[in-house]
Amino acid sequence: MTRVLIVDDHAILRRGLRALLSDEFARAEFGEASNAEQALEQLGKKDWDVALIDITLPGKGGLDLLKEFKAARPTLPVLVLSVHSEDQFAVRALKAGAEGYMTKESAPEELVQAVRKILAGGRYVSPALGEKLALSVRRDLTRPPHETLSDREHEVMFRIASGKTVTEIAGELSLSVKTISTYRSRILEKLGVRNSAEITRYAIQNGLIS
After folding, report:
1. pTM score, whole prediction
2. In angstroms, rounded to a whole number, what is the distance separating the alpha carbons of residues 135 and 73?
3. Rounded to 5 degrees, what are φ and ψ at 193?
4. 32 with 6: CB under 8 angstroms?
């Protein structure tokens, strides 16, 4: 029996992922969580074989949760799912310990293949991402400023660059406006820019958003 823990704040998506995997893993047992708190509670209940984690969760984000999962269960394979393109979060997720990364858009075609691969002890990335990772290993370049951001700073930077206000971001991440403002100040300093418009310009120039 394969035990699968699905962490996503959208119930419809959880059901969809469960249905996709049920077709291939007939005797699978599933657990679900809609946020980090529930996920950590579920983690302690059973000996899960694989966890699927959405990178964008309310409150504590998916990357932070991934690190906690790996601290508590280092051998638990984790596949990170995201609505964001691979360019934006994949490398960070893999560095944080994920065994795989895939976009939700590609899930219907690739999910079963990805889960089978990481259950067998491998890692899963798309061919396009694999090529990019191989190229990055061969390069010896100074890290661009956005790569010095913490995972949470990177998430806030992406939302600012996408046109969200500090208040909107605070609501989406279930954090205070003061906390988001602090993150924004750090981002401005690290990127060497002066305001939110320049954060957006930086993100566009560096291919972080289209």
Report:
1. 0.67
2. 31
3. -120, 170
4. yes
Integer CA distances (angstroms), 124 to 69, 79, 81, in order = 18, 8, 12
Instruction: Please tell me the distance from the alpha carbon of residue 135 to that of residue 99, in angstroms, as a whole number.
Output: 19
Measured between alpha carbons, how far is 150 from 30 in angstroms, rounded to an integer?
Answer: 32
pLDDT digits (tens, 9 = 90+) for 26-58: 889 999 999 999 999 999 999 999 999 998 888
d(CA 163, CA 99): 31
Q: Which residue has the tokens 């079963």?
A: 112
DSSP assignment letter at 45: T
One-letter identity of residue 131: E
**How many other C-beta atoms are found inside a 10 Å radius of the C-beta of residue 112?**
15
Q: Over the stretch 150-196, which tens digit does the pLDDT of each residue have?
A: 899 999 999 999 999 999 999 999 999 999 999 999 999 999 899 99
- Sheet holding 29-33: strands in order across? 29-33, 3-7, 50-54, 78-82, 100-103
